[in-house]
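Hey, resending since the last one bounced:
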Amino acid sequence: MDASASQKNRKRAAIYARVSTLEQVDGTSLATQVERCRAYVESQGWSLAGELVDEGVSGAKAARPALDRLLDDVAAAGEVLDGLRREAAGYLAGLEEDPGRLAVVEERLALLERIARRFGGSIGAAIARREAAAALVAAADLDAGGVERLAAAVEEHRQKLGRAAAALHAVRREVAAALAAGITEDLRGLLMPHARFRIQLDLRDDPAGIAWDGGRRVACGPGGVDEVRFELAANPQDPERPLGEVASGGEMARVVLCLEARLAAQGGAGTVVFDEVDAGLGGEAANRVGERLQAIAGHRQVVCVTHLAPIAARAAHHLRVTKRTVDGRSDSTVEELGPAARVEELGRLLAGEATPAAARVHARELLAALGPGTASGGPSGAPPPTAAAGRNG
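The structure tokens again:
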């Protein structure tokens, strides 16, 4: 290819590119684009203007029908969408606000949710329960007034249940106040001088429950209507709050001890088990807990699982629980300790596995001051005995 032909092809490509660019300009007629193309060619001083521009215009005209059809399709789609928009806007404008209807619908949905929760966990389960009940009624072959008589009997029993629940609630309120006052007193004797313990009896509203004062209907189960909550304030400026939210480990241990001691004193089981009721305690607080356990042991057998030497030293019988792993399985053994072994175990509780001589001396001092047969530990052999178990391993 000679130089003039190569130059001609480069010029042809430049003009095609220019025409293509102008074709994409919105709102510009093809004639205007052609004139701009001619001006561009002439500004370059090319002699092929007429031939190349005509050829470029022919290519643009050939491509224009396909572009026009595409533009027509887009315009038609836009008209359809605009019509749909106007129709939807008209529909929304015609809707009337009805707050009363909305409240009725929300109340109905809440009722269906309660029914589902009460009768199987889902609407399908509730419908199945209803069909089963209807089948029972049909199988009873009741006469026309049979269902009404059954409904009247149900209401009569519901009223009896309400009276019994109210009587139980009144007794619980009285007992709860006395028990809370006693536990408060006991806690203040266990180095919590500002403690306030409260037993709260809550009622839960239930439209399907039993009638209560003030036109309320409250939930009632096998244990009555009361939902019992223990509350504690450990400091004078603090309000009573749920026990599980505010009590530390040591405070929780003392509350449990006082509660179980008060309940045990009311009668019932002859043996009371305290499993690590001394958790989080030490020093004088541990001594106070040991005194309380010893007092309970005066009229009950007490089994106490402990890691504290001042509590274990008060026991009439000291048992050691040893845990080990044999063939991949945990194995525990229990052995009663004699005098010498007991000194070693108390020393271990005081100072760890090393059990130095000073710890043994301290252990003997604890046994002499707190053990059975002492003024602090109570008379030797006084039934029922106190048992302390120290876990090892």
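Residues 378-385 have pLDDT under 50 and may be disordered.

Sorry for the duplicate.
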